[in-house]
């Protein structure tokens, strides 16, 4: 256009470059969605570590069973839910669509399915607690079924939002891929 102190090109005030400095919306969306999914993955890792700690304490008998109950059956397959999160994190550096799709499918299989099974497994105990006020398993003085239902509810929300944002991220990656193919 022109040098810093020299004459300008005819017909311009020097501000016609601003349209080239905008980042395409799907790239902005990708960065934002990656950030959201990462936050959800880290939240999932915290939940996973808490369940792992509860299972280790229960099996290794580090505390009496009246303080930390033995794990429910749904907690064992839920331990595999760390794999979809790792696949999700691996998909981010190069926008790897196949890793993200595998992460979404395995999230349903290893994360959501055990949570549904867990809600069904614990329902009779929750019903007994509600109707009769009797709990037989405890976690630090609280009814184990109440604590674990709280974990199930929070984990279901985390995985639900993770799937939602992953789908939107996948859509933004497809948009950028389609634009590259058109060029």
Span between N and C termini? 27 Å
Strand order across the largest sheet? 1-2
Q: Please give the domain count.
A: 1
Describe the sheet with the most strands: 2 strands, antiparallel
Cα-atom Rg, whole angstroms?
Answer: 25 Å
- Determine the number of helices (DSSP H or I, runs of at least 4 residues): 5
Organism: Piaya cayana (Common squirrel cuckoo)
Family: Belongs to the jagunal family.
Membrane topology: Multi-pass membrane protein
GO biological process, one term: endoplasmic reticulum organization
Topology:
Blueprint: H1 25-60, H2 75-78, H3 82-91, H4 97-132, E1 138-139, E2 142-143, H5 144-182
Antiparallel strand pairs: 1-2
Helix pairs in contact: 1-3, 1-5, 3-4, 4-5
Characteristic key phrases:
single chain; 183 residues; mainly alpha; two-stranded antiparallel sheet; 5 helices; 2 strands
Please describe what this structure looks like.
This protein is 68% helix and 2% strand. The chain is an all-alpha fold and 183 residues long. It has one domain. It has a two-stranded antiparallel sheet.
Quick overview of this protein structure:
It contains 5 helices and 2 strands. It is mostly helical and 183 residues long.
């Amino acid at each position: 256009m022109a040098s810093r102190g020299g004459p300008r090109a005819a017909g311009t005030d020097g501000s016609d470059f601003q349209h080239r400095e905008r980042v395409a919306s799907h790239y902005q969306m990708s960065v934002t969605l990656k950030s959201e999914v990462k936050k959800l993955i880290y939240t999932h890792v915290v939940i996973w570590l808490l369940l792992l700690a509860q299972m280790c304490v229960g099996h290794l008998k580090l505390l009496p069973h009246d303080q930390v109950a033995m794990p429910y059956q749904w907690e064992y397959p839920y331990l595999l839910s760390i794999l979809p999160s790792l696949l999700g994190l691996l998909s981010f550096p190069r926008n790897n669509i196949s890793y993200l799709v595998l992460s979404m499918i395995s999230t349903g299989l290893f994360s959501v399915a055990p949570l549904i099974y867990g809600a069904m497994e614990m329902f009779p105990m929750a019903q007994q607690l509600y109707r009769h006020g009797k709990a037989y398993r405890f976690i630090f003085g609280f009814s184990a079924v109440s604590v674990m239902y709280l974990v199930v509810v929070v984990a279901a929300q985390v995985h639900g939002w993770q799937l939602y944002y992953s789908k939107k991220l996948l859509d933004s990656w497809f948009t950028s891929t389609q634009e590259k193919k058109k060029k």
